[in-house]
Amino acid sequence: MREETAVKAALKQHEIELPSWAFGNTGTRFKVFGQPGVPRTPWEKTEDAAQVHRFTGVAPSMAVHIPWDKVDDYQALARHAGDHGIRIGTVNANVFQDDDYKLGSVCHPEPRVRQKAVAHLLDCVGIMDATGSRDLKLWFADGTNYPGQDDIRTRQDRLAEALATVYGRLAENQRMLLEYKLFEPSFYSTDIPDWGTSLLHCQALGDQAQVVVDTGHHAPGTNIEFIVALLLRAGRLGGFDFNSRFYADDDLMVGAADPFQLFRIMHEVVRADALRPAGGIAFMLDQCHNIEPKIPAQIRSVMNVQEATAKALLIDADALAEAQRAGDVLAANAAMMDAYNTDVRPLLAELREESGLDPDPVAAYQRSGYPEKIVADRVGGTQASWGS
Ligand code: RM4
Ligand code: MN
User: Fold this and answer.
1) Nearest CA among 129, 73, 68 for reference residue 96
2) Phi, psi (deg, nearest 5) at residue 96
3) What is the spatial distance between Cα 207 and Cα 204, in angstroms, rounded to a whole number?
4) How far is CA 198 from CA 136, 205, 300, in A?
5) How many other CB atoms are there within 10 angstroms of residue 73's CB atom?
6) Which of 149, 259, 282, 388 is deepest in the core (most CB within 10 A)?
7) Nearest 10 degrees: Cα torsion 360, 361, 364, 368
């Protein structure tokens, strides 16, 4: 297996971005269970995200979702993040929670609604200018519920036109990340249901448009690492939204449902030498913690990504390549499994200690006094929640 020092050096450079919405109250359409101490504002979400970075050392940015994280002064929010040792990352646009969007946003049959959606996307680029964010992440709930409800092809034309307008507004150092999702909330057709559709639009737009792979947005059994490998090969993988699914878009903690899949995905990333920030892949979490406490759940998730990554880094690439050349199926599989079956927790604990961190980030957080402090301090006001 690979040298431990090389593995540690690679892990030190790997950064994971946190979603602001993971710190607010979330639930299902059946019930949202509130938790004491949950942030009431984007400022407080930023403070919580900073805690995850404080104990893991590898989560220096927080993605925002607009309008959930709407503030009067985005430069001030970026400064607030900086004061707490992190930065504002990807700007996620929300064009799915307004009554006008019942039949879609950028694909809506009415020009007025399409213009409203595009105006919001352009505002989001303005926010990126203020926060210094590189990436605009677009996910559209657009689609139809019944055959014939709208014209599939015309909707693609509307989508392409809207994307081109927004793309034209990007600065040279900014990117558009285009997310796909198989179904939900639309149940018959989704306007960007898969990586192929996303890639076609990105290719038509230009190099600054990249595909984002949300691990929860595929049919059961989909070989996600294959998609990752193809997009990396094409230079079009902009980032990940990591989470776990057992059934649909469950948004559970990454690495909880299928740590082996996460390992296989990270193997493709390592194989493409795309782990470093310079590799241009945004490693984001996109999760909702419905029943578990939020900050430790984010810490756990970051650790899960690190564990899968460490295992992927441990693969003996030379032995694997040799086995593949020789057509030695069992040796090739063994190279993967030896790495996967390695307990990397001691290595990660060592790495943290070398970086001046506690070897056990969850326990360190629990001991820090912060959990009690937020419960005591955050009394009154309205807790942040998915949808508000
Ligand atoms: C979507 C998608 C997006 C996220 C929203 C909240 O399913 O995954 O990335 O912005 O949910
Ligand atoms: Mn997502």
Assistant:
1) 68
2) -135, 5
3) 9
4) 14, 11, 30
5) 10
6) 282
7) 180
Q: Which amino acid is at 12?
A: K
Atom of ligand 1 minimally distant from the CA of 65: 10
Over the stretch 16-47, which tens digit does the pLDDT of each residue have? 999 999 999 999 999 999 999 999 999 999 99
Q: Which of 67, 117, 61 lies closest to 92 in space, CA to CA? A: 67
182 C-alpha to ligand 2 centroid (Å): 12
User: DSSP assignment, residue 25?
Assistant: B
For residues 233-256, give the mean pLDDT.
97
Distance 214 CA to ligand 2 centre (A): 5
First to last CA, the chain: 48
Residue 94 has pLDDT above 90, yes or no: yes
- Ligand 1 centroid to Cα of residue 5, in Å, is 37
- For the CA atoms of the chain, what is the radius of gyration? 21
Residue 212 φ then ψ, to 5°: -115, 135
Scanning the structure block, which residue is given the tokens 């955050």? 378
Among the atoms of ligand 1, which is closest to the Cα of residue 184? 7
pTM of the model: 0.97
CA of 82 to the centre of ligand 1 (A): 25
CA angle 312, 317, 323 (to 5 degrees): 120
Q: Which residues line the pocket of ligand 1, CB cutoff 6 A? A: 65, 92, 139, 179, 181, 214, 241, 249, 286
Q: How far apart are CA 212 and CA 198, in angstroms?
A: 9
Strands 175-179, 189-190: pairing kind = unpaired
CA-nearest residue, atom 1 of ligand 1: 139
